[in-house]
Amino acid sequence: MNLQAELSSGRSAYRILREADLRDYLASLPSIVTQLGGAPADWSISEVGDGNLNLVFIVKGSSGGIAVKQALPYVRLVGESWPLPLSRAHYEHLALVHQARLAPNLVPAVLHHDAPLALTSMELLEPHIIMRKGLVGATRYPRFVEDISTFLARTLFFTSDLALSAAEKKQGIADFAGNHALCKITEDLIFTDPYRIAEQNRWTAPYLDATAAAFREDLELHVAISRLKLKFMASPEALLHGDLHTGSIMVTDSETKVIDPEFAFYGPMGFDIGAVIGNLLMAYLASAGHERTAGERATFEAWLLETIEGVWSEFSRKFLALWRSEADGDGYPVSLFAGEAGAARLEAERQAYMARLFQDTVGFAAAKTIRRILGLAHNIDFEWIADEKQRAICEARALKLARNMMLEAASFTTIGAVTYAVRELRHWQPDFAR
After folding, report:
1. Are the CB atoms for 229 and 192 separated by under 8 Å?
2. What is the distance between the terminal CA atoms of the chain, rounded to a whole angstrom?
3. Measured between alpha carbons, how far is 136 from 396 in angstroms, rounded to an integer?
4. Based on the domain organization, do 10 and 153 belong to the same domain?
5. Residues 294 and 423 in one domain
């Protein structure tokens, strides 16, 4: 039975679960009962979802706990006026299965999936916290670079034409092609709405009114973002997480877990890498707004810059190592690059490929930054800065950086150039602050 038939046949079975419903449902699953332990009546259940789309429950029994995620038939952030297909839960589950195979121990283990209910039960991540919250609190995570670079390198390489046959790659694209409603959200909220008048847009007014208006009139910026949008829509390079910001990563000092891949689809690799780097850049520029005394976050900010550089450099190193040792796909057939001369030419092409990928990464990082300041869904890096003028100053710095990165991506040839640029803006003052 295909996905649409499965969901159609089970549509009458779908219902939004509340605490009592969920307790009864989980009590009917022997493996979950064993996982939780104790009597179902004694389980603690709390709804903790703070995202934009779904219900998330934490369930604990005498022996353990689980996380349960249920897709809602609409955007939770907006309400029933913005419907969304429940099938996104299927694509999230499918992505988690692929990611667990390719990057073991870097995603939560799936314990149970119910397609008609659009519900997935997963490993409870404790004492992990959402990375974005930790960054607001100036917490450093020593494992992050190692883990996220491994996740990116392995999930992107092994779902690309460098590792797959053409038939395998096309089947992968087909498997996720139905997730177009989630892609449409990205196409609108990241690549279109911040650059035009849109009902859902908001920004820190009145301080950013002039900047928002300038972005709506900036035709060079409109060309640049449209090129990125076209690449997003027309370049199925690899299986993407699709929403890889610091709110989709849970961390401790010793562990990193990537969560919430419901936006998964085959797209340009730089989109996932740029999402990580863009969110770290925002964390750096938001940091000043969380200072209580000058310089108290300097050590944290230095770590952030090192982390930004490390994400790209370690990803690049690992991706290239995989390409050199695991390239069984139909892209760049080894038979065309025989002998020393062929090997040298292929290595030069690898370096050129990575340079192009870095340019994509820079542009997508900029796009992810702009949408978080001028679009619908903002992030707590900036939103938790209580003083609105100080928040707007931090956001203006980020917008200045992002505009430069998007329009002048070719001038950023190294990750060090990116960290230099953001460091130079740390104390820059917009006109409204002077």
Report:
1. yes
2. 64
3. 18
4. no
5. yes
Q: Does residue 107 contact residue 239 with C-beta atoms inside 8 Å?
A: no
| Helices 388-407, 339-374: crossing angle, 10 deg rounding | 150
Residues 193 and 257 grouped into a single domain: yes
CA 232/CA 227 separation, integer angstroms: 9
Rounded Cα–Cα distance for residues 246 and 304 (Å): 13
pLDDT in tens, 239-271: 999 999 999 999 999 999 999 999 999 999 999
SS3 106: coil
Q: What is the number of other CB atoms lying within 10 angstroms of the CB of residue 154?
A: 21
- CA angle 134–139–141, rounded 5-degree value: 95
Q: Using CA atoms, how far apart are residues 100 and 146, in angstroms rounded to an integer?
A: 17
Check whether residue 185 and residue 285 sit in a common domain: yes
pLDDT at 53 (0 to 100): 83
* 135-181 pLDDT tens trace: 999 999 999 999 999 999 999 999 999 999 999 999 999 999 999 99
CB-based contacts of 353: which residues, under 8 Å, 6+ apart? none
Which residue shows structure tokens 């996740």? 151
Residue 55 structural domain: 3-123
